[in-house]
Each structure stands twice: as C-alpha cells, then as structure tokens.
Amino acid sequence: MILGENGEKMSKSRGNVINPDDIINEFGADTMRLYEMFIGDFEKAAPWSTSSIKGCKRFLDRTYALLEIVNETKGYSPELEASMHRLIKKVSDDIEALKCNTAIAAMMAMINEFYAKGSVTKDELKTFLLLLNPFAPHITEEIWQTCGFKGMITDQSWPSYDESKTQLNEIELPIQVNGKVRATMKVNKGIHAFEAIEMAKKLGNIQPLIVGKQLVKEIYIPDKIINFVVK
Which intervals hold domain Aminoacyl-tRNA synthetase class Ia (predicted)? Predict the structure, then answer.
C-alpha cells in the first residue's frame, strides 16, 4: 500500500491523495511505473515521496543520456565485466523474489559505474536495457531502436551470466546504532549501499533498536561500516 506523504492512508478527506494521471503528465509513465516498484517491499506500506520520484526521473534521463557515451566496442569492457555479470544475477534473482526495489537500486549503482568510466560498450548498454525493460518499457524500447539493435526489445532473450564471474570476496561489516557497534554481518565486498542498509535493518540485534524510533540518518562507508543514527 502506498501512503500519503504524511505517512497516513490516502483519503480525499485528508487531502493527501496522489492522482496518477498528474504524475504521468509531469514525469512520464515510465517514471511512475519505476517509482511504484522502487518505493519499497511489496509486502510493506510505504509513504509517497515526491523527491524520490524525481530521483527516478533523473535515473531515466541518465539512462537515455548513455547514448552520448556509447561506443562500438563488442562485449563487456574488462573494467566492468564482473560488475555486469553480478548485475544480471542480482536483477534476475530479485525479480524472482519480487524484490524490485533492490533490483532497481542495483541498476542505479551500475549506471554510476558507466559514467565513472566515461563510456559504455554497445553490449553493456544492450544488457542494461534488457534488464531495465520490465521496469521502464517505453524508454528502453526507444533507446533500443535508436541504437539500431535488431527486433523489438520485448522479443529478446533475457541476459545470461557466468557464475564464476560474479564471485566477490566476503567481508564482515560492523553495524552501529548511534556510533556503538551492535552487530556484524557477512556481505560481499562492494555490496551496494541500498542492499547493505536494508539487510542491516532486518538483523535481530538491530531491529529492536531502530523500530519505532526516528531514523535521523543512515551512514554507509563502503566495505567499512553502517551506522544508524536514531532518537
């Protein structure tokens, strides 16, 4: 269930109803679709966030802008080959588990890697579009056609990955609450911030310390530590 921005159930009497038509007119159908799957776990209620939907729009704009840095190189670049295989595995597994929010978060992290590198190969873009297509079908089809890929994107096979290229070194990540270590958890080195934080929130030693309290800040230092600031 999607709640109003004030965290209450949407109701005309409360004046907190969001009209989907207004959102589509302002941000586009793909952004609306993407945000609804990014907002949180399907099993849990989540409040509407205008700033978050703007973030989804920026992500799709950055996806379209990949056309400006795509090159004709075949295959995956050596720098991003492992990341691409991990992304395919992550998105595939998350879709099966109905964890669309973490699948989208992984793609958001991947696009940062493209821009950090300054280029994207045609095969990297092709795979990225195939993974994103279930969440944003219109823009991915448009980019697909612009790139000159054969057929329609919806008729293509799902990308495959090499399990041996998805392996990461496992590390033990300390979890703090208000600066004090309360738990640790084993994660893959290089884990995405969103995924690490969501995993930490579900730990038995952490949940009682943050549930029902105001979560002021979530601090994640990659491969080093997570700190929840609550009051």
Answer: 1-36
